[in-house]
Each structure stands twice: as C-alpha cells, then as structure tokens.
Amino acid sequence: MAPFSPDPLDPDDDRPPYEQVASSLGAAIRTRRxxxxxxxxxxxxxxxxxxxxxxxxQRALRELEDxxxxxxxxxxxxxxxxxxxxxxxxxxYVEQAFTAQHVTIDFAGFSGETLHGALQEPLDKIRVGRLTxxxxxxxxxxxxxxxxxxxxxxxxxxxxxxxxxxxxxxxxLGYARSIRDSIKELEHLGLVPxxxxxxxxxxxxxxxxxxxxxxxxxxxxxxQVQPNKVVAQGxxxxxxxxxxxDTVLFHHSVNEGESSHGAMQVQQAxxxxxxxxxxxxxxxxxxxx
Length: 289
Hints:
Keywords: DNA-binding, Transcription, Transcription regulation. The chain is α+β, with helices and mostly antiparallel strands.
C-alpha cells in the first residue's frame, strides 16, 4: 500500500489547527484511505505532512481517540480502530458526504432533529464557498401523526392522545421545514445548482431510525421506549415516548468491500427505504400545517 498522503488543508479554514488535522485524518479513516487496523504515520511523520507542531498532532490524535476512530497502543503507535458494527457519530459522515458533487441523504425515523443538527456545518461551508456540490437531494420519511400511533401514549392508561400527536407533529414538521428552507436557499442564492427536499409520511410507528448517505453509508439506531413528562397544550402529561437524539447509531459502509457485510447492509437499507417510500408513503405538505 502506498504511504499515506493527506489532502491539502483549506487555507481559509478558521478552525484550530488540531481540529483541521483531526478532520483530515477522520475523513481518510471514514473513506478507508486509512483502513481498519492500519497503523497511522508516526507523530514525527504527521508533523512533517501537516506542517504543525507535535503538540497539535498529539491533540488531534486525542480527538480521534475520543471519537472512537483510533486506538493508541503503548510502545507500538496509533491504529485505526476496527469499527465494524460499532457505535458511530453521524455528524462527521454527513460533513464528508458534502465533499461529493452529488449529495443524497435518505432519513427514516421520528423527528429529524439529529439530521437537522448534522446539516448545519456543511451548509455553512457551502455558504462561504468551502464546499461546492452540484446537487443536494434529501428525502425524509416520517410517521403520519394525524392517526393514532403506538407512541407517544399516556403512561396512565397507554391510550392515544391527540395532544401528544399534535406536539410531535409540530416538532417533526418544524425540523423538516427548516431543512427544506436552508437547502432551497442555497439554490436560490446560486450556490448549489440543483436541490430537492421531499417529505413523505406513512401510517406506522418507526421502531428504528435510518440514514443512507450518498448510497455508500448506512446508519441504524433502535428507539427505546422511555417514560417522559411533557407539556401539551399547557397541560403536563406523563407519557411513554421515544427519545431519539441519544440513540446509538451503528455504521455500515460499501467501502468495506463489494461483497462485505457492510456493503450488503447498505444495499438492504436502501432497498427498505425505497420500498416504503414508493408504496405506502404519501407526500407531506409542510406548509399546510
């Protein structure tokens, strides 16, 4: 294998140097230019490659270790962690996806809150010209909260409550509208030639959340039912709910190899999404609410 050579850093990047190095190495790991089990170049070599002080390199490696991307072995060096079916963070993969010319993101789940947060940094980078995709397509698949669902329900009797569904619907549509408006704005400003954001709903309660990014990476996370106390229409209510923001995500990638377990997971995740999207899901009018 050829020696590792990082992509040039962006001279307009105003992040601290250690964050720039961590981001560069993280991107190389996520795209398998530094594959699982691979030993990273030495501190001295990384200092030469990036042109930063040894302390900066050390801090960048600690950042990668905190993210679960690398593991330090005393007396041996720093290695890319074997992350097969390990918990993964969505945000860096979303940011990496926007370096492609054509960006596609499919999401299925409850509110889209995590996706909304993960999109902020890459969209900001497009606004200042640091990312220049030619197209962005986002599809969001959510439950139809106009009909009773398995969740959320009242704790006391396990019964459906329209106030709870209206509360979830308000949050869900709010995140979807924000995503749509932020992305369409980029097209109106002439920063991205082609954008599309579609939202569809279906009459079922999702037991998991799913992201498929650029057809190459899939993330799944399982919702756990938890007690919660909310205020709906001014009234406090004890409910059973799903708290999706902290759901552990598991990552699979086609970069693991064409016939690998990861590649098959991505293929099946995409097939699942297409089957629901193209059959029982119906277009959702975000501006009708």
